[in-house]
């Protein structure tokens, strides 16, 4: 009978083996998979915006965040089950670099391609949602703009710490989804940590590649001028510290921690 899940040690090895495969795949494949991840996270982000636009006055802020996090998790479910390259999840590739299975240059090259692909996919998805005119219903436009403004006005250190906490959970979600051997297990593994980070208010770089451009597009259409909500504030005030925090959270607290526990001192397997 096939095991229903992998042990932590087996999961670490599975991630390392997967990283070795990813390091040799074609550039075009990596680009397409990273574009798909941008779309998939966008689906979750837009659904969270729709669900939370008017729930807080009715059920309270906490339950509203819980609902938003619950539906946002569809993004990582699509990434994991359907297959895509997500920058934040690829922080786990650092395990393979630490273990000598791929070079740090290969890791950096993968991250660079994937984050640019995620950005392109997220921007295109934000444009599609903008062109759909669905934002004209209810309080959706105002809510989307408020989400974007709240993110671009965070102090650098706050955005950094929220990024660390976010990707700690995202990488644990990917870790658990790798351990699961069936679809239901993978879905549950994605749901709990992702719901937790969204409900807690942590910051995810790829999600923000949808949230903030959407707010910028809507603010321009509605003639709203806000010095705290600009393309510069998107890239410099939010995306930069959040991305750095995501890297630290995923690499230090998940990749390094579990490499240290399960692989340190072992000889790398032959490629």
TrEMBL record:
<keyword id="KW-0472">Membrane</keyword>
<dbReference type="InterPro" id="IPR024002">
    <property type="entry name" value="For/NO2_transpt_CS"/>
</dbReference>
<keyword id="KW-1133">Transmembrane helix</keyword>
<comment type="similarity">
    <text>Belongs to the FNT transporter (TC 1.A.16) family.</text>
</comment>
<feature type="transmembrane region" description="Helical">
    <location>
        <begin position="30"/>
        <end position="51"/>
    </location>
</feature>
<dbReference type="GO" id="GO:0015499">
    <property type="term" value="F:formate transmembrane transporter activity"/>
</dbReference>
<keyword id="KW-0813">Transport</keyword>
<dbReference type="Pfam" id="PF01226">
    <property type="entry name" value="Form_Nir_trans"/>
</dbReference>
<keyword id="KW-0812">Transmembrane</keyword>
<dbReference type="InterPro" id="IPR023271">
    <property type="entry name" value="Aquaporin-like"/>
</dbReference>
<feature type="transmembrane region" description="Helical">
    <location>
        <begin position="63"/>
        <end position="88"/>
    </location>
</feature>
<feature type="transmembrane region" description="Helical">
    <location>
        <begin position="159"/>
        <end position="180"/>
    </location>
</feature>
<dbReference type="GO" id="GO:0005886">
    <property type="term" value="C:plasma membrane"/>
</dbReference>
<feature type="transmembrane region" description="Helical">
    <location>
        <begin position="109"/>
        <end position="130"/>
    </location>
</feature>
<dbReference type="InterPro" id="IPR000292">
    <property type="entry name" value="For/NO2_transpt"/>
</dbReference>
<feature type="transmembrane region" description="Helical">
    <location>
        <begin position="239"/>
        <end position="261"/>
    </location>
</feature>
<protein>
    <submittedName>
        <fullName>Formate/nitrite transporter</fullName>
    </submittedName>
</protein>
<feature type="transmembrane region" description="Helical">
    <location>
        <begin position="187"/>
        <end position="212"/>
    </location>
</feature>
């Amino acid at each position: 009978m096939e095991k229903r899940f992998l042990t932590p040690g087996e999961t670490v090895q599975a991630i390392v083996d997967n990283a070795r495969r990813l390091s040799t795949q074609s550039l075009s494949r990596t680009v397409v998979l990273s574009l798909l991840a941008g779309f998939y996270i966008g689906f979750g982000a837009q659904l969270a915006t729709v669900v939370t636009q008017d729930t807080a006055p009715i059920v309270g802020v906490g339950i509203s965040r819980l609902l938003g996090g619950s539906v946002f998790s569809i993004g990582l479910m699509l990434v994991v089950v359907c297959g895509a390259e997500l920058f934040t999840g690829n922080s786990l590739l650092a395990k393979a670099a630490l273990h000598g299975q791929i070079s740090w240059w290969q890791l950096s090259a993968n991250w660079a391609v994937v984050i640019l692909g995620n950005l392109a996919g997220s921007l295109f998805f934000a444009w599609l949602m903008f062109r759909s005119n669905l934002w004209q219903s209810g309080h959706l436009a105002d809510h989307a703009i408020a989400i974007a403004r709240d993110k671009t006005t965070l102090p650098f250190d706050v955005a950094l710490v929220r990024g660390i906490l976010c990707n700690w959970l995202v990488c644990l979600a990917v870790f658990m989804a790798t351990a699961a051997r069936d679809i239901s297990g993978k879905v549950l593994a994605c749901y709990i940590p992702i719901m937790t980070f969204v409900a807690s208010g942590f910051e995810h770089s790829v999600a923000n590649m949808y949230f903030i451009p959407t707010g910028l597009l809507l603010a321009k259409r509605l003639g709203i001028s806000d010095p705290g909500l600009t393309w510069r504030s998107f890239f410099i005030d939010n995306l930069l510290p959040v991305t750095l925090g995501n890297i630290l959270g995923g690499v230090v607290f998940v990749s390094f921690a579990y490499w240290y526990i399960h692989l340190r001192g072992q000889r790398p397997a032959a490629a």
